[in-house]
Amino acid sequence: MRLLGVELTRFRSRRAIVLTLLATVALAAVLIGTTLYETRAVSEADLARAEQLAAQEADARYTTRELERCEEAPEQYFGPGATTEDCQGILPQAEWFLDRSALSLAAELEETGTALVFLLLGVATIVGTTFAGADWASGSIGNQLLFEPRRAKVWLAKAAAVVLGVAVFAALLLAAFWGALAAGAAMRDITTPDAVVTDILQTSGRGVALASLAALGAYALTMLFRNTVGTLGLLLGYAVAGEALAATLPFTKMSQWALSSNIQAWLSDGAELYDDSLCEEQALEGGECIPTYILSFEHAATYLGILVAITLLTSLIAFRRRDVP
User: Fold this and answer.
1) DSSP 3-state assignment of 276?
2) Mean confidence (pLDDT) of the chain
């Protein structure tokens, strides 16, 4: 525990890490402010203008002509059982001419909430590489081993410090983000369903876990290659190459091996992916096909877990056996 405390102190004292985390907080604050501003209440002047535009569109010749066609055959527009009253639904509405919508935490979960988690993944990767790379760049890792020669213990203490530091930061930032949006919704008397709150909590939990995993993997790679830039270059190359192979190789469901697809499936508890190769045989036979499939959370967890496990094992073995300058 004492060694872990030392590593946590070292984690907090890294200037590059502190600046990175502060920049992330600033970006999250910008996301909050932008979201609250763009979903602000519509003024009476804006609403009156939207109602005027809707009335003008409703009186337009092409609108009245379309309304007449609908009233003559409403079932062609709305399906069996439709009546002429249903045709009023095709008339322009005032909300069509408003440039913003009300704050919805469900919508933000799919948009800004997801963007923030991806930002955290990038930050976690940078933090993990920076924490390990600084020791190798300065040569302090050799001095650290003089005080604690058990290399595995040093490696594990550093890994634990990275995981704890990133996990706590990610959890606090996501809590502050959703807390601010929830407060904004409450001030505007907007009710959020319990199911949406549950989705936010579960998605945030998976986001914290994934950020911690990203930091751990980046740390392990940097301890293996002993170079921050080299680690970041390798991770970028793997992500780009994986996307390219998934898009070009002539095999079915190649996208399931792309890093971005598995990250999406992890965060969303399963993701629907498009793959036109699924329908090649059906197209030749003249059959109908939906070119999508579900990439499960279990597949994503296995894929990411194996990648990180291999990286951790290789890094730890190399650190125990290779010479340290």
Assistant:
1) helix
2) 85
63/33 same-domain check: no
Residue 257: count of CB within 10 angstroms of its CB: 15
pLDDT at 126: 93
Q: What span, in angstroms and rounded, lies between the C-alpha atoms of 150 and 1? A: 14
Same domain, yes or no: 11 and 30:
yes
pTM for the complete prediction?
A: 0.80
- Residue in the block written with tokens 């990203």: 214
For 40, how many CA atoms within 13 A lie in the half-sphere containing its CB? 8
**C-beta neighbour count of 37 within 10 angstroms:** 9
Residue 272 β-bridge partners: 294
Cβ(214)–Cβ(125) under 8 Å? yes
d(CA 199, CA 194): 9
* Burial environment of residue 158 by CB neighbours within 10 A (0 to 12, 13 to 18, 19 or more): buried
Residues 109 and 196: beta-carbon distance below 8 Å? yes
Q: Domain containing 70: what range?
A: 44-97
Domains of the chain: total: 2
Residues 75 and 127 in one domain: no
